[in-house]
Amino acid sequence: MSSLESLYQQVILDHSKEKHGRADLGEGDVLDPLSTARSHQYNPLCGDEVTVQITLGGTDVETVAWTGDGCSISQAATSVMHDLIVGRPVDEARGILADYRTMLRSRGEGEPDEEVLGDAVAFAGVSRHANRVKCAILGWTAFEDALLRIEAARPTAKDES
Amino acid sequence: MTLTSTQATPLDHDEVEAIRADFPILHRTVGDGAQLVYLDSGATSQRPRQVLQAEYDFATTSYSAVHRGAHTLASEATDAFEAARETVARFVGVPTDGVVWTRNATEGLNVLAAALTDPEAGQYTLKPGDEVLVTEMEHHANLVPWQRAAARSGATLRWIPLTDAGRLDLATVDGLINERTKVVAFAHASNVLGTINPVAELVAKAKAVGALTILDACQSVPHLPVDLGALGVDAAVFSGHKMLGPTGIGVLAARPGLLDALPPVLTGGSMVERVTMETATFREAPQRFEAGPPPVAQAVALRAAVDYLDRVGMDRIAAREHQLAQLLLDGVDSVAGVRVIGPNDAENRTATVAFEVEGVHPHDVGQVLDAAGVAVRVGHHCAQPVHRRFGVNASSRASAYLYTTDADVERFVQALGSVRGFFGRS
């Protein structure tokens, strides 16, 4: 496999076209802060941007919708993320993100666990390209940020007591 | 400063090959063993062994602090440092005292923008109601400092818009340069579009209203014969690393008189005359603008770079790059689904060609080209407004230099032809 093919695995090429979960996110939408949040992430180095909106149902990720403009890696990564985390408990989704980050930072040395990462293992080749790691993490960063916003909006156990 | 095919004899194939022999890095391979095709000189140029050797020789014989100390090394280092200033000044047609060393061109523009908002700049101090004029094709380095200067001073920032062909819309200039205009700051050549702007025309209009002219010469001084004195600009900036020199050194070149009328911006050692606990007096230019330890080794290396360019001949380099501009334009034009961002003709244009590949993001374009050994720049090239003007967030950019061969362009065009297919765009 050439270095180009090991970077652009078929999964990535497919997702960059199919863009699962991509939707028009209306500017004026009123969101319930206790269950839904949106995060916009921008990479000033290349101009790529993505907005991810998540809705939690209890402790599960109920829906993920996103829009954005960027390279095939960033578009495919967000599409794969959609497939991986919709319907998952939040804790599991966070676990996938942690493993994914570790893989991307491995400089090609890591041994990603396909059981955890599923299709996201296709991005292992990105870790050899330092200047593309940010592309592969952009949508995930938006997910993580949206998650934190919802958690911040929810009353904690202490508040309720 | 027009660049046409009727000027000097272009460097021929053998001469370009002889030049390439001086650049060790051009002989390396990348990725799966592809021979490097370096088309990113607009971002930073490569250095010939003569430049590397000059820095090495200086470091191993004369290196020391300059303008202080009585020892032999201090004297030799000072001589080498000041000789570099003389060489660079002559190269761009300004007096030696008109050359200020900076870290880069960005710093030079920031120094000017800061000085011109200082009340101590007297007649030059920007005030509410004044106007600063730039163009829509500026690099962020010649835009953001003026945005800040306008915000600090209450002056208004205006800009010359572009035509769809990627040239300044000169029909607007007479309205934009008026009695309120105090500064006209513009690129000699665009780092994205490759457009070479009509400096003499803009300078004449600016002078007629008494405005200062400031030229961003980063993309011209390395590629064209540039005589700043003859162009009549008040100040200009350029960077060492785009003209075969090292990073960490730039030049702020100005006409005699202007620099001495401006207050210092960075202060501290080396730029003062007399210092008490309460106050200080400042040296004349250029030292007034060179606080702290200067880039000594970089200046010595930059001198070697200028000597190299001089030996080859800037007129012949310009003539060769005119050929390369035509080859690049023809090549990009021959690939289906690719659009040039910038003028489609090689007249008054540098060999810097930005383009958009339909349906493929510039990062992905750059990656496929890299796999073929071809290094281009991708992104917004520190010029977001010009990209927005042409309806894109980012672009890919091939930029050539004196060491670029016809075969390099052919390899680039061939690789470009494979990009859309790789991503399944037909």
Automatic annotation (TrEMBL), chain A:
Domain NIF system FeS cluster assembly NifU N-terminal as annotated: residue spans? 8-135
- What InterPro entries would the database entry show? NIF_FeS_clus_asmbl_NifU_N
Q: What is this protein called?
A: SUF system NifU family Fe-S cluster assembly protein
